Structure formats: C-alpha cells, structure tokens
C-alpha cells in the first residue's frame, strides 16, 4: 500500500511562491488557497516523463481526456454527462469574468452571494452589469443560500446567479433538497446558473457533493458548471479547468473568445490533470484523512479561544472564522502582528472575519494556533480591562 508523508515540511522559500514570499520568514502564511503538501507522485512522474521528450510545442488536449472526466464525474458524483458538454479552459478564475459578460445582456442584472470567493464578487462587479450580493443564511455556524432570498433579491432583468458549491469561504456542501430548491427558483426566475464547484473533490465523510446541473433536466440546460482538480491535487501552478454545459447555445456563448483573448491551456496542465484523474485517487484519500485531522485540531483550538467562532467545514481546506467579538476593524492585521497571515475577510466583503488555510503540516498549524491564542488572549485582556 502506497503511503504519503503530509507531515513533512517542504521549504517553499525561494520558489516564487505567492504565499510564502509575501511576508517575512518569521510569519506563517496560511492565506492563499494552495497546499504545503507535495503533489501526488503520479503527477510528478507524468510531468518528468513528458519533460524527457525535450520538445514542448503547441499542443491540444490528450486523446481520451474528456472521456476520463466523464468517467470521473460519474464515479465520484453520479453525474452522467457527455464529452461534448466539456470545454477546456486555462483558468477557472478567468472564466468567471468572461462568463459574466458573454452570457448576459449588457443591461442585465447579476446575482451573487455574500460572502463568497472574491473573484466571483469581482466578476459580477467588473462585468459592467448591475449586480446584487445575496446575504447567506446562517444556521448553527453553517452558511447556505436560502432559495427564498433569490426571489427577494432578483429583479425583472436578472439573468444569472453566481453559485459556489462547496462554498468558499464557508465550507458548506449543499444537500440535495437545498440544491433542488435553488434550481427550482432559478427555473422560476429564468436565471442562468454559473456554478463554481472547484472544491468538490475535498468533501468530508458523511457529505456528498451534488452538482447543481445534475438535479433536473432544466437545471442541466441552464447551468454552466466550472470545475478543476487543481485544488484537490495541489497543482494550481500547472493545472487545468473545464466547464460543463449541456445547452449548446449557452455553451457557445460561454466559449466566446476561447483560444483568442482567453488562451488555450498549455501542455503541462493537460499532462498533470490526466495523471491525477487516472492515478491520483490513493493520494486524494490520504490527503483527505490528513485534512480531517487538521480540521479537528483547528476546531478544538478555536473552542478555547474566546471571541472566535469557526463555521462548519463540510469540505475543503479553507476555514472561515468570525472575529466579530474581537471588536477589531481588521482582525487579520492583529493575527499578522502575532506571526500568522490569513486572508482578510474584507476580500469577501466581511471585514470582521478571516479565512485560514489548514492544508499544511501539523507543525505549522500547531504553531499558528499558538500564535492565534496569544493574539486573542492579548485582545481579550484589553476588552476586559
């Protein structure tokens, strides 16, 4: 049986890492959403094998890659699609921006979520369309989109809903009845659904990812699903994304400018993705077991920190933490002053929150939690003075 060492610290300094180069070396950077784990050996081998050919010319998708994705989606999510519904894209993020423009009318209104991944917010904002952020409902520290809220915030010219499942930053995995009701309301309001599902490969035990496009025939025909295994297998620097859309007219709109303004994917992204799909499952399962123990470590530590509240993590390695009781204008700065860098909640339009990346060896996470306790304790003393 193959084993993987996720406890091993790997020095990421001097590797042009966005995360590790931003701050001084005495800061533990747990902000940007990539992992501190070595990528799966099967991917490293595949990239090395391709490197040995020594020519890296223009490329196209490997034969059978779409069929591999079809099989993967059927196996993992019981979602049965056809290969023609898949369009490869170099970046999920760039697709968010292009879709907001290419599939809606210039006078359209777009609905998005609050909080949500900042590129979704910015895609709506930068589209030139009118847009509204729908506040998510909270039930026992679990964030979710209330379907009735869509009705409340929709306008007569609303054309698209930006959805995110599993949710970033909240970590929610939507249940079948929740997903179905959202799809039903979108049918009622005739909304295109753009669903960011990039974190679907990291769902915790007892939960199941359900693509919103899979819940009904109507949902399949009004949904553009954005997917990638970049996060799951820690290959964002050489990864690939794709969209799935059954509706051919909608798919053609969604594909506008691909290969021109939006470049084609490059050779190593195809190689890495194909290797992960074919041989990466043992690594993924081992990585998930490690993430679960890190989540338990985080959850236990947060319960001992007055004034912090952890939202329920049902997927992914991104923890969303409320710091409202700290009474800090910028809580991320307080933690940074104590040697831990987290994503400021202001990026998600909730400045009294922070997002913490737990995809790191325990030696880093444990030290970060000690520093967080120190920061909270010092603030607690001031508030109680």
Structural account:
This protein is of the alpha/beta class and 385 residues long. It has helices at residues 18-21, 41-51, 65-77, 92-102, 118-126, 147-153, 176-188, 217-222, 248-254, 267-279, 281-303, 331-337, 362-383; strands spanning 28-29, 86-89, 109-114, 130-135, 137-138, 143-144, 158-164, 192-196, 223-228, 241-244, 309-310, 318-322, 340-341, 343-344, 353-357. Strands 2-10-9-8-7-3-4 form a seven-stranded mixed β-sheet, with helices on both faces. The protein has a four-stranded antiparallel β-sheet with strand order 11-12-15-14, with helices on one face. A two-stranded parallel ribbon has the order 1-13. The termini are far apart. The protein has two domains: 18-41 and 281-383, Aspartate Aminotransferase, domain 1; 55-279, Type I PLP-dependent aspartate aminotransferase-like (Major domain) (Aspartate Aminotransferase, domain 2). The radius of gyration is 21 Å and the shape is globular. The model has no long low-confidence stretch (mean pLDDT 96).
